[in-house]
Write a structure and sequence with these properties.
Shape: elongated
Structural class: alpha/beta
Strand content: 5-15%
Low-confidence stretches: 259-265, 529-545
Oligomer: single chain
Length: 841
C-alpha cells in the first residue's frame, strides 16, 4: 500500500510532511522505509511525516519552548472530560452526556476549521444550537480561567507562531483555517498523482459473509501470483465486521491455525486496519477483572473468570487446582461472591492464596474519594499484587496490549488536571472509556492490507478488492454535526451542507475507491437476493484440506473400569452417545450458573421432597379419599415445611421460599385430585427408593421416584416431572426419556405400567402405558401387548448399555437433545452444523 503523492523531493530536503490522517502518515512513513531498504540503506533518519493534528501539537510544543506565556494544551481525553463536566453542569437532565461531549467537541472543531463565529446569523433558529452555544461559553470560560487551550484553538494560534516549513499532502478539501496555514510563506502543497479509474470486474454474492470469503480467496490467489505486489481489500464498516473478516482471512491464509498456535502479527501476510478496542483484549480484560476485587461483592462470572485467568501469577502451575476452585465457587450458585469466598475455595492453591493476601493489604487503604492520579496509583498496586500479567512469556500482541494498558493508566492520571476527586467507580468508568477508544492501526508492511472503504482516499496499491458495495452499505452516510445549524454550515461552505455539496461528498469516496488500483474486483449482494448462490469461485483459488479422523468409538470399558451413573447414563446414551461418553467416561461437566432466587431445578427438587413427605403420611388411595379437603391441605403444608426447611435465610430468599410454598401447595393439591380418581386402587410401596441394577456389565445406581402396589400384586412406576416432558417415545430405538424403562428392566415382569407425572399448573396429566387403565385421559394409554412392550423395552435398555460399554460415542443428538446440554463446546455440534450448511449451499 502506497501514499498517492510523490514526496521524495521534500523528504530529501527533510521538510515536514503533513497529511490529513494518521493512517496516511503511517503509509507514507513505511513507503519511505521501503525506498530506503531498496537503496540498500542500513539505517536512516526518521522522516518528519505526521497527521495534521500531530503537526499542530508539535507546533504548539515548539512554540512553548521558545515563547513565554504559551497556554497549556489539553489532551483529547482531558478535553472530552472537560466537555462532559461542562454539559453535566449546564444540562443536568441530559440522558447521555458522554455522547453529547463528543458531539460538542466535534462542533467546536468544525467552527474552528471553517471559521464559523458563535454569533453568526442563524444560530438562534434551533434550540440545540442555542444550548451548544451556552456549553461553549462555559467551556471557554473555564479554559481561560485555568490557562488552557484545546486542539481546536490551534488552528487560530499556529499561524501567529510562524511554524517551520512544511508540505501539505493528500488533502482533498481545504478548510479556511487550512488555507490560512497553507498561505504562509514557509508552506507548500504537494499535488496528488493523477489517477484514472482502474479496470474492474463485478461479482454478485448471496451474502456479505460470502463476499468476505470470496475476497479472502481472491487475495490469496493474487499473493501467490506475485508476493511482491501490494494488495488491498476494502470493506465498509470494517470496525463492525472485524471479527468476521479476521476469521475468514485466517481460515484461508492459515488453515493450519485450526490445530496450531497463531503466528505473531508481525509475520502475518495480511494486516487489518481496525484494531479491536483494548478493553476487548484478553490481557486488558483480565486486568479489569482484577479491579473487581476492590468492590465489596464480585459478580460470579467475573470471579469465575478471575480464578481461571492465565494472566495471574502461578496460573500455569495451578491451572487444575484453580479450575476445581472455580467449580467449588459455583456449586452454591450465588449471584455474587466476596474476596473471602475466593480465599475459601483457594485452599489448595497456595500461590493464589498468597495473591489474595497481597490484595487484602492493598485494600486496607479504603479511601472512598480520591484524585484520579491516586486512583491510577491504586490500580497499579492492585495489579502488581496479583502479579498481572502473570509469569508466562507474553506474545508480541500481548506485550503491546500491556503497554497500551500502562498508557491508559497514565492518561487516567492526567485527567486529574480537569477532574475533581471522584469515587472508585467513577475512576473505573473513566478507565473503561479510555480502553474502549479506537486503537491505532497496524503497519503497512504486510502484502495484503484490509482497510475500511472510507479510508481509500490518498492511497494506492497494485490490485484491490472492494467488498460490500451494495446499496445498503455504500456510500457511507454524511455525518453533519447537529449542534451547528445547517443554515450556518451552508453559509460557510461546510461540505455536505447543501444538496449539491452533499451529492459531491457522496461521490467522492466512490471515486477514491475506483482509482485506488489499476485492477479492481468488486463484489455486492443484490438488493433482492434470492438466497441462492449466484457467484462461483474462480478456478485456481487455493483451498486447504484437513485430515479427517473417525472418532465414532472411544475405548471400550474393561473389567476393572469403574463407571458411576444411573438412569442419567442411559438417558444420555439414548439422547446423544457422545454426551454419555463425555459425562461418564471423561467426567466433563458444565459449570454451575448463578441463580437469583429459585430456579427450575431447585423447584423440582422441592416438589419431589414434598410429594415424598405427603405419601409417607397418606400411603394409600383409600386414605387419600378419606381425608377431608382441609385435613389434606394441612398434610400438604406439613410436607412443604419439611421440604423447604432450612433453605434460604436472607429477606429476599425467605420471600422467594414463601412464594414457592404457596405455589407448590396448589400444584400438589391439584395433582392429588387426579390421583384420587385413578381407575385401580393402589398403595404407595416406596418413594425415592435406591437400588442397583447390572446391565451389559454396567452397575447402575437407581433412584425410583415412586412405586405403587396394585390390588393384583403387580407394581406401577411413576416419575415426577415439574415441567412439560412431552412424549417419552418409549417405542423408539432411542427413547427420549428412558428412565422408567430402566426401572422396569430392573424390576422385571411384575411391572404393570410406566407413567411420567406432568405436574405443570393448568396442564396436569399422566403420560405413559400400562397393562390396564390406570389414569383418565388420552395420554395414559393401555398397551396392546404389554408383555411384548416390556420385552422390547428391556432389549432397548440392554442395547444402549452395551453401546456405552463398547465405547460408542458418536455425535448424534436427538431433536432438542442439545437444548440443555453442557457438552456443546466439546463436541462442537454447532460448528459442524455450520460447515454442513455451507456445503449444502
Amino acid at each position: 500500500m502506497r501514499f498517492a503523492c510523490d514526496l521524495s523531493r521534500w523528504l530529501e530536503q527533510r521538510t515536514a510532511i503533513v497529511t490529513p490522517s494518521a493512517l496516511l502518515a503511517a503509509a507514507a512513513k513505511e513507503q519511505f522505509a521501503r525506498e530506503q531498504i531498496a537503496k540498500g540503506a542500513g539505517s536512516w533518519d526518521r522522516p518528519a511525516i505526521s497527521s495534521v493534528d500531530a503537526w499542530l501539537r508539535r507546533c504548539w510544543s515548539e512554540a512553548r519552548h521558545t515563547a513565554p506565556n504559551i497556554p497549556a494544551l489539553l489532551s483529547p481525553v482531558q478535553e472530552h472530560v472537560l466537555w462532559r463536566q461542562t454539559i453535566e453542569q449546564e444540562s443536568k437532565e441530559l440522558f447521555d452526556p458522554d455522547a453529547a461531549a463528543y458531539l460538542a467537541r466535534d462542533a467546536a472543531r468544525l467552527m474552528a476549521e471553517w471559521q464559523i463565529p458563535p454569533d453568526a446569523a442563524g444560530w438562534g433558529d434551533q434550540e440545540d444550537a442555542q444550548q451548544f452555544r451556552r456549553w461553549l461559553a462555559r467551556f471557554r470560560r473555564r479554559c481561560h480561567e485555568h490557562g488552557w487551550i484545546v486542539q481546536a484553538d490551534l488552528w487560530r494560534l499556529v499561524p501567529a507562531w510562524v511554524p517551520a516549513p512544511a508540505v501539505f499532502a493528500g488533502f482533498e478539501t481545504y478548510t479556511p483555517a487550512l488555507k490560512q496555514l497553507r498561505s504562509l510563506p514557509t508552506m507548500e502543497q504537494a499535488k496528488a498523482e493523477p489517477r484514472a479509474p482502474g479496470s474492474s470486474t463485478a461479482t454478485e454474492c448471496a451474502s456479505f459473509e460470502e463476499e468476505i470469503e470470496h475476497a479472502a480467496h481472491w487475495a490469496r490467489a493474487r499473493f501467490e501470483e506475485n508476493p511482491a505486489q501490494s494488495i488491498g481489500v476494502f470493506v465498509p464498516g470494517l470496525a463492525r465486521q472485524r471479527a468476521l473478516v479476521a476469521r475468514r482471512l485466517e481460515s484461508v491464509f492459515y488453515p493450519s491455525r485450526a490445530t496450531k498456535p497463531t503466528v505473531e502479527t508481525a509475520d502475518s501476510i495480511f494486516s487489518i486496519h481496525a484494531a479491536a478496542p483494548l478493553a476487548e483484549h484478553p490481557v486488558a480484560a483480565a486486568a479489569l477483572l482484577v479491579l473487581e476485587l476492590a468492590q465489596e461483592r464480585i459478580p460470579l462470572p467475573a470471579a469465575s473468570a478471575l480464578l481461571r485467568s492465565p494472566f495471574l501469577a502461578g496460573a500455569d502451575a495451578e491451572r487444575n487446582q484453580r479450575a476445581m476452585a472455580d467449580l467449588h465457587l459455583r456449586r452454591p450458585r450465588p449471584a455474587d461472591v466476596s474476596l473471602r469466598d475466593l480465599e475459601r475455595v483457594s485452599e489448595k492453591c497456595p500461590k493464589l492464596r498468597l495473591l489474595w493476601m497481597r490484595v487484602r493489604r492493598v485494600l486496607r487503604d479504603d479511601a472512598a474519594i480520591r484524585e484520579l492520579p491516586q486512583w491510577s496509583e491504586f490500580i497499579g498496586k492492585l495489579l502488581r499484587a496479583v502479579r498481572w500479567p502473570g509469569d508466562a512469556e507474553l506474545s508480541a500482541e500481548e506485550q503491546q496490549a500491556v503497554e497500551g494498558w500502562q498508557k491508559a493508566l497514565s492518561e487516567l492520571a492526567s485527567l486529574g488536571l480537569v477532574s475533581p476527586p471522584v469515587s472508585f467507580n467513577a475512576a473505573l468508568a473513566h478507565l473503561r472509556r479510555l480502553l474502549s477508544a479506537a486503537r491505532e492501526s497496524v503497519g503497512f508492511f504486510a502484502p495484503v492490507q484490509i482497510l475500511d472503504s472510507a479510508q481509500a482516499s490518498g492511497l494506492a496499491c497494485d490490485c484491490a478488492f472492494l467488498a460490500g458495495m451494495s446499496e445498503g452499505n455504500w456510500p457511507p452516510p454524511l455525518n453533519l454535526n447537529p449542534l451547528v445549524p445547517l443554515a450556518v454550515q451552508r453559509a460557510h461552505g461546510v461540505p455536505g451542507s447543501s444538496p449539491e455539496s452533499a451529492q459531491r461528498e457522496k461521490l467522492r469516496p466512490t471515486d477514491a475507491l475506483l482509482s485506488v488500483a489499476p485492477i479492481i474486483e468488486i463484489s455486492s449482494v443484490p438488493s433482492a437476493a434470492s438466497g441462492q448462490r449466484q457467484a462461483t469461485k474462480s478456478d485456481g483459488l487455493p483451498y486447504s484440506f484437513l485430515e479427517s479422523v473417525d472418532d465414532t468409538y472411544g475405548p471400550s470399558l474393561t473389567l476393572t473400569s469403574e463407571i458411576r451413573g444411573g438412569t442419567s447414563l442411559i438417558k444420555a446414551q439414548s439422547q446423544c452417545p457422545f454426551r454419555a461418553f463425555a459425562e461418564n467416561r471423561l467426567h466433563a461437566t458444565g459449570l454451575e450458573e448463578a441463580a437469583l432466587g429459585l430456579d427450575s431445578r431447585e423447584r423440582g427438587g422441592f416438589l419431589h421432597k414434598a410429594l415424598e413427605a405427603v405419601w409417607q403420611q397418606l400411603q394409600t388411595q383409600d386414605r387419600l379419599r378419606a381425608l377431608a379437603e382441609e385435613e389434606l391441605r394441612k398434610a400438604v403444608r406439613r410436607a412443604l415445611e419439611t421440604a423447604l426447611d432450612g433453605h434460604m435465610q436472607t429477606p429476599f430468599e425467605r420471600l422467594a421460599k414463601e412464594t414457592e410454598r404457596e405455589r407448590l401447595e396448589e400444584v400438589i393439591l391439584d395433582w392429588l385430585a387426579i390421583e384420587r380418581e385413578r381407575e385401580q386402587p393402589f398403595a404407595v410401596e416406596a418413594v425415592e427408593l435406591k437400588r442397583e441394577y447390572e446391565c451389559a456389565g454396567l452397575r447402575l445406581k437407581l433412584r425410583l421416584d415412586r412405586i405403587d402396589r396394585l390390588e393384583n400384586g403387580n407394581v406401577l412406576l411413576l416419575d415426577y416431572k415439574s415441567g412439560k416432558p412431552g412424549s417419552p417415545k418409549w417405542d423408539a430405538e432411542r427413547p427420549l426419556e428412558p428412565q422408567l424403562q430402566v426401572y422396569a428392566a430392573a424390576l422385571g415382569s411384575e411391572v404393570d405400567g410406566l407413567f411420567l407425572c406432568q405436574l405443570k399448573p393448568r396442564d396436569m396429566k399422566a403420560i405413559g402405558h400400562s397393562r390396564e387403565k390406570q389414569f383418565t385421559g388420552k395420554s395414559a394409554a393401555v398397551a396392546d401387548d404389554w408383555d411384548g412392550f416390556l420385552e422390547q423395552s428391556s432389549a432397548c435398555i440392554e442395547k444402549l448399555a452395551g453401546d456405552f460399554a463398547a465405547g460408542f460415542a458418536a455425535v448424534d443428538p436427538l431433536k432438542k437433545a442439545c437444548d440443555y446440554c453442557s457438552q456443546k463446546p466439546l463436541c462442537r455440534i454447532q460448528e459442524r452444523n455450520a460447515i454442513r450448511e455451507d456445503e449444502d449451499d
